[in-house]
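Students often ask why we bother encoding 3D structure as a string. The short answer is that it lets us treat folding as translation between two languages. Here is a chain of 125 residues written in the first language.
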Amino acid sequence: MELSGCRILIVEDEEDIRETLKDFFESEGCIVTTACHGKDALNELRANEAPHLILLDLMMPVMNGEEFVSHKNAHAHWNQIPILIMSADHHAAERAEAMNVKWCILKPLSLNHLVSMAEEALSVA
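And here it is in the second language, the structure alphabet:
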């Protein structure tokens, strides 16, 4: 699936990163919603049409990425939405694997790499 027309939820506590990603994916034709932590992301899932992809930071206040994944996966309507983890934690890949999340990218982000991973995640969803 190509990016244009995709609904993406970006869950990132750092506003500059969140807004940069939002602007970038909107310029690619995506419909983007954002959340600043996991609890906010759950509210976005409840309030809006389910996204095709979730870009998720792990280390956030209020509700971290791992807690969010646990809550998301408990809902049948949301548990098939692919997640791409974005984290500065060098153990993020192991943490992603423990959550059964296939896609993980380390910060600082390369937009080209992020796009190719997003396209890969969308192609198998």
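Translate back mentally: The mean pLDDT is 91. Keep this in mind for the problem set.
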